[in-house]
Amino acid sequence: MDHPHGGPAGPAGHAGHEMGGAVSTLDTWAAVLFIGWAVVMWAAVVVVAYANRGPVRPWLFRTSVAVIGLGVVGQIGHFQEHVVQAGYWVANPYSAAWMTPWANSIARGMGQVDPTKPALGMEILHLTGNFIFLAGLVGIVQITRRATGALKARKWAKMGVWMQGIHGIEHIVLTLSVALGASRAIGLSTWFGAIDPGPALVTYRVWWHFVANLIGTAILAAALFHLWKEKKAVKDGYLPEPAAGDRPLLQASDSAEHSVRGAEPVRERELVSRS
């Protein structure tokens, strides 16, 4: 799903990925919906993060679960693009990088922001996909926020947020470099533009992003695994807090129960002494 680009084709005719073709209404709607997906997720993350600072609310847990679910679905689609692309490279190591038809469609729709930069749509697509993934990881951090104790799910999710955050910065740099008129994308995955377009750049960028997403997906899987194992502790953090008027009654009930239990040994000793 990552395609070197910029400049003319290399010696063997290996330019960057050519999205080509006229932009259809379907392309436009696909791009709008994909960006909307990311915007809705991050809006939910901001709301949950703010609301988690206050008392428990019934919708907090459900909203966090929805954010995590959307992030998982997004990353499954994202990662399969990298798997397919790596597989295509194995079969065609000297060919230009390849994207699935649906990824091409979304990239074409996004490329309408500046038709003079053919690679811009593809870069925006990558940027959006990575931030959908990042929102899902942040969702795991937020849903475990109220749980007591050190949860492994939270530890793995935080690790993923740091790694995916760095990966996201890489895509911001790549996208901005193209948007600002660079002849090729500039970033770690292009060796800061030092590698000329061609098989070497295709190979480097395809495998750089494949490995980065493989590690990120493994971290997400570990976080989800531990989240499932620790779901009781997580859910307990969202139990409704007792109303202020109920607390004295609960405390009185606990005190009475404690008094009854404490009196039982005394009665037993009195019976023994009488006998």
UniProtKB/TrEMBL annotation:
For the keyword Transmembrane helix, the answer is: yes
Q: Where is this region: Disordered?
A: 245-275
Per UniProt, the keywords (alphabetical) are: Membrane, Transmembrane, Transmembrane helix
Q: Where is the signal peptide?
A: none
Q: What InterPro entries does its record include? A: DUF6008
Q: Which domain of life is it from?
A: Bacteria
The record, for Pfam families, names:
DUF6008
Looking at the UniProt entry, the stretches that span the membrane are: 29-52, 59-79, 124-144, 165-186, 206-228
Q: Which residue intervals are annotated with compositional bias (Basic and acidic residues) in the record?
A: 255-275
Kindly provide the name given to this protein in its UniProt entry: DUF6008 family protein
Tell me what organism the protein belongs to: Streptomyces omiyaensis
